[in-house]
Design a protein that fits this description.
TIM Barrel, Pyridoxal phosphate homeostasis protein, 10 helices, 293 residues, alpha/beta, 8-stranded parallel beta sheet
């Protein structure tokens, strides 16, 4: 997958785009390391690495980095701030169209290109874009100009707005329900103590069945599964074990909702061990982000 040329033209899109070869080599190295970590974690858990999807969290990094990772095989990207994401997606789409001429090149293999197919980002890009930040209703219209997925639906007030906008744009929106792992609960049955609020957001698991029913019945929305971030100040594995229990209960009533989006640069092995299907990797791919939450 690393450095694969365009399968239609045989050309290297990176060269056509005039990208920084030093930065591209760094990204290639980082991507290879992450892919090996994912593959090793999958093997340790008795899982097939091809069943895992790598999502590159490109927040704070420029469009050029996204384009370079695209030439290296990555197809799934995530942003958490609408004001940054909109212009970046536009720039990425424009650069890809200019560099390869044909904006319909298919996805690559391995964790970078495996998993859910592209949602068809406006402008013809073959990338899939995920919004993973806390979504405000007044920002929803801007987000839906570019997002194929919203992974952070954690309250009923968002559902109607997203449904209306998805229908209006004429393209379905994939939804993950963000689950809070701060409260150690089991669909309302307390099984442990309350841990400190991490500020990461998410619905209480007790509220998830009703929220899932609401999303599943909303026009223009497709319920894909759950998303969570491990709480600060406690080991990741037990938190992801709670998420797995939530996901298993959700899929009983919503068989299509098989996505478990969990695991980041520091805890992806724990997430894979507990059934994560989509891994959101930022720092390990792009580098440190000083002062950025």
């Amino acid at each position: 997958m690393i450095g694969r040329p365009d399968p239609f033209t045989g050309a290297d899109p990176a060269a056509a785009a005039g990208v920084d070869p030093v930065r591209r080599a760094e990204l290639a190295r980082r991507l290879a390391v992450i892919e090996e970590r994912i593959a090793a974690a999958a093997r340790a858990a008795g899982r097939d690495p091809a069943g895992l999807t790598l999502i590159a969290v490109s927040k704070t990094y420029p469009a050029e980095d996204v384009v370079m990772l695209r030439t290296l095989g990555a197809r799934q990207f995530a942003e958490n701030r609408e004001q940054e994401a909109g212009p970046k997606v536009t720039m990425v789409t424009r650069q890809l169209e200019q560099s390869r001429g044909d904006p319909t090149v298919g996805g690559g293999g391995g964790p970078g290109g495996a998993g859910v197919a592209s949602g068809g980002t406006p402008g013809g890009s073959d990338l899939t874009w995920h919004f993973v930040g806390q979504l405000q209703r007044n920002k929803a219209r801007s987000v839906l100009r570019w997002a194929d997925w919203v992974q952070s639906v954690d309250r009923s007030g968002l559902v109607g707005v997203l449904s209306r906008l998805a229908v209006e744009r004429g393209r379905p929106l994939s939804i993950c329900l963000q689950v809070s792992l701060d409260l150690r609960s089991d669909f309302g049955r307390r099984v442990g103590s309350v841990v400190a609020d991490s500020g990461r957001g998410g619905a209480d698991p007790a509220e998830l069945p009703a929220l899932a029913d609401l999303v599943d019945g909303a026009p223009g929305l497709t319920l894909r599964g759950v998303m969570a971030v491990a709480p600060r100040g406690e080991p990741a594995r037990p938190a992801f074990e709670r998420l797995r229990a939530v996901a298993e209960r959700l899929v009983v009533d919503h068989p299509q909702a098989t996505v478990i989006s969990a695991g980041m640069s520091g805890d992806l092995e724990a997430a894979v061990a507990e059934g994560a299907t989509h891994l959101r990797i930022g720092t390990a791919l792009f580098g440190e982000r000083p002062g950025v939450p």
